[in-house]
Design brief:
Layout: E1 3-4, H1 10-17, H2 31-45, H3 52-59, H4 63-66, H5 73-85, H6 101-118, E2 125-126, H7 134-144, H8 154-185, H9 189-203, H10 210-223, H11 229-254
Parallel strand pairs: 1-2
Length: 258
């Protein structure tokens, strides 16, 4: 099941994200404690395992007491995503400008890969409408820095950052799917491929499927599996950044004074 940020009342969500109307509970329960408990449960059980009841049990309070701080699970997911986003970079200087735009974007990709590996539940949260709290806004601001001053237009910078982050998400989802399949089936990809690979080699006629048989066999032998998320991530990122480099060179050749 895929959850989505931005599904609640935007005014209510923004007030919670920016803490403009913090409520104090008589039990000492805080919004931050609820968020931390939600993240801990999602880390352990996935986003499908998250519920207000489980959070209440973890905190040793009644489920009703949670609603004095957060209206529903919908708004809570916004808060959880914003919170983990705010932990990606220790401070605004996490990407020093002297490192260059390419090295900076490589760090951005690595940090997001780690974020999605540490919190696999994020792979099941659609953030097309992002939770625009201080955590997400701060992350976005830092991640724009590498391309500022590169000669690209502002909208191009935003689009390239989106391209990099979406590539990381796609590779991370693939990695998460491999891990989940291994857990569900009780065997890893290499064990599965050792059985499926030889059978497919016998079944697939190279005359009928020339490309699938040749390239698929080469990939299977190289990966010892059907897919390799780490290599997909690395090659995809390198290809994207090579394209960005070409775009920057073209822009600067046309506008040498920019």
């Amino acid at each position: 099941m895929v959850e989505r940020t931005g599904n609640g009342d935007p005014l209510q969500s923004l007030a919670l994200l920016w803490r403009t109307n913090v409520k104090k509970g008589r039990s000492g329960l805080t919004l931050d404690a609820i968020i931390d408990a939600g993240i801990a449960i999602a880390n352990e059980s996935g986003i499908d395992g998250l519920s207000m009841r489980k959070i209440a049990e973890k905190l040793g309070v009644s489920a009703m007491s949670l609603y004095a701080h957060v209206p529903s699970k919908t708004e809570l997911i916004d808060l959880m995503v914003d919170h983990v986003n705010g932990k990606v970079y220790p401070d605004a200087e996490s990407l020093p400008p002297e490192s260059g735009w390419r090295a900076g974007l490589e760090v951005v990709a690595e940090r997001n890969w780690k974020l999605l590996s540490d919190h696999r539940w994020l792979n099941d949260v659609d953030t097309v409408r992002p939770p625009l709290g201080p955590g997400t806004t701060g992350k976005y601001d830092i991640e724009l820095k590498p391309l500022v001053g590169s000669g690209l237009e502002d909208v191009e910078i935003d689009q390239i950052l989106t391209l990099v982050l979406e590539h990381v998400k796609a590779a991370a989802r693939l990695s998460s799917a491999v891990a989940a399949t291994n857990e569900t089936t009780g065997n890893n990809d290499q064990e599965w491929w050792s059985v499926a690979g030889p059978v497919l080699t016998a079944l697939i006629d190279p005359a009928k499927y020339p490309h699938a048989s040749r390239i698929g066999m080469a990939a299977g032998q190289e990966y010892d599996s059907a897919v390799d998320p780490d290599r997909t991530y690395a090659l995809g990122l390198r290809t994207i950044l090579d394209g960005v480099e070409c775009l920057i060179l073209q822009k600067n050749e046309k506008n040498p004074e920019s």
